[in-house]
């Protein structure tokens, strides 16, 4: 991927978080590092590749130090794996974000599916997966409403019409446009930051099923210790995202 600088302003962060029904005050003077995961998507576009129809599968975060709003970091990254599967091509990439001093406060990796529309119907058996049983140790910690215009606005830079155009979403087998998986990651990150800035974090997020642009989402802390989070679609009680937190401090 091409190397380039990233600088997250307070205004840009507030706009993205508003799209996700998240109060920007949670992060204070610091960057919600989910923004840098968005940049790992944009890196492909900077390299001249189309990401229209790309579906986010998983995202890894490793933060060593918090990053302040307005601070400039340099992104560098590379593709680490390309694998064909039943629904298209799976692409895994790794990224570093570095300061001018050479210090690396953040490393990220992501896997995405470059979907083949002809192989995306029906949508990967999502309609046949059973609803989850909400166990007694699942603590509901937040609820967020997705709004179509906010979902479309959140992903406008990427120009991935699967998030904004019902006709394009239908070509890939979806009943409606789907929200970017990182919208749910932002909701999870806001919960982890509820008591103040995180100095360090290692978190893996898997995007299991589509979040349609008109869904109500419910966030659960499994066990109440912040080590496992699950996002549930309120319409059918199916898991759309889950996260494992190896450490935070």
Give your account of this protein's structure.
With 249 residues, the chain is of the alpha+beta class. It has helices at residues 10-19, 34-46, 148-154, 166-171, 181-192; strands at residues 4-7, 54-63, 72-85, 88-98, 106-115, 138-145, 201-207, 216-222, 228-233, 238-248. Strands 1-3-4-5-2-7-10-9-8-6 form a 10-stranded antiparallel sheet, covered by helices on one side. The longest helix is centred in the first third of the chain and has 13 residues, at 34-46. It is globular.
Task: Please tag this protein with its features.
10 strands; 5 helices; alpha+beta; ten-stranded antiparallel sheet; 249 residues
